[in-house]
Amino acid sequence: MMTMKLLIAPWGNPKGWEELVYEFEGKEVKSYTSLKILHEVIAPNKTIIIGLDTLAEEGSNYEEVKKNAEERINEYASKFGLKNYEILIAPGIGSFPHGTFCGSALDYYYYILAKISTNLLNYSDNVLEVHLDLTHGINYSTILTYKAIKEILEVFSIFEEIKFKAYNADPSLPFATNKLFMNIIEDISPTPKPFDGKIKQKRLLDPIDLNPEERKKLFEKDLRCIRELDASEISAFLGALYNGLPLALFRFYPDKNNLKKTIFKTLKVYEKYIKIEYTTKLNVKRKVRFGEDFKAYIFTYLTTNLLEKLGLVSSQEREVELLKAKYITSNLFKFDERLKIKIENDIYTLEKDIKDKNVNDWEIYNNILGKPIGEPDKRNFLAHSGFERNLVEIKKAKNAYVRYRENKIKIIKDFCQQGLK
Questions:
Q1: Domain ranges for the chain
Q2: How many helices and strands, by DSSP H and E, does the chain display?
Q3: Distance (Å, whole) CA 199 – CA 222
Q4: For 93-141, what is each residue's pLDDT tens digit?
């Protein structure tokens, strides 16, 4: 497997940066930015500079505002001698001599979460090394970039090998020194961690300053794509990975094409509701903000793609061969040895229970065992990897197959979501 090195750096305003000597791993480079020395030492395949739209000084619409901010970043990056980089302009806030930018600070976080995660999917066939330079970030952008990248990589780490390093230069005051050392502030293989949230309100965007007519248009027209997705099934899917429920992963696997469409539509609608005015200076006012649920859709899309790339799950299946459940246990749930052992034991018990039974057509698990069919039990469902004997039906021909009782699917979706926030 090829190693893909990606260098990411949030930037503030480069206008006032001083030319200094940066030293790292025995090398010295004179530059206005720490990215220059990191390029020399790391030799990344790709660099992403995350700039803020607050750098813009003009624009009659938001596309022009972003373009103006990108041009300023590009101007300085070229002046600093950087090559092989891309620029991602993200929403910022604050009042400056050239303009005022109003909105939610967390929009920056949700925006780069969507953009960076979908970008990283292009390289998921490689061993990923992600390098994060926090030297030039400003207040909220620094911590939110770090938070977003760590959360994305924790999900990636479930499926493949990931390496993560974060850097920061020595702190300095103007004219106090002409040399800064680069410091590695984190060097880890991120701990695999399934996303532990769920969809609560089905709100991808929340109004900040919308009149009743705009509000109606936002929810009934602009975001109608949300109706094509079953929020309870998406949350059950997320819970299936979090709780170690292999059959539920197949049953609730969502349509990733609809997820992608929803995510990019949301980004587009978000920008549509940004009001641009220019009097004596630029005034950018965001009339909506990203809702907390947007994050769940992003991580669901990320998870579905990674499952498919590894050949584990690629479509929703209601009737699942038990061999598939065993395969996904060995090749996916190895990220958590406790879950893996528990699921393997539950599948072994199921196989033993039906070994000498003739089950030519679908029968409820408890019925096969000669036991009365009772009410589903949440504790048993979670304790036995989703193979709750009142909820699972089994059929055995050449091979054994399992499925959930469709008339109990609402209860099953609720059980799957236990533990999610």
A1: 3-188, 205-416
A2: 14, 18
A3: 19
A4: 999 999 999 999 999 999 999 999 999 999 887 889 999 999 999 999 9
Q: Report the C-alpha gap between 81 and 73 in whole angstroms.
A: 12
Let me know: does 7 contact 134? Beta carbons within 8 Å: no
Residue corresponding to tokens 């899917």: 237
Amino acid (one-letter) located at 182? M
Return the number of other C-beta atoms located less than 10 Å from residue 4's C-beta: 18
pTM of the model: 0.96
Q: Which among 341, 338, 343 has a CA at the least distance from the CA of 324? A: 343
End-to-end Cα distance, the chain:
36
CATH of span 205-416: 1.10.3740.10
Select from 3.30.390.50, 3.40.640.10, 3.40.50.10640, 3.30.70.1620 the CATH code of 3-188: 3.40.50.10640
CA distance 381 to 395: 20
| Exposure on the CB side of residue 154, measured as CA atoms within 13 A | 15
Euclidean distance between CA atoms 136 and 168, whole angstroms: 8
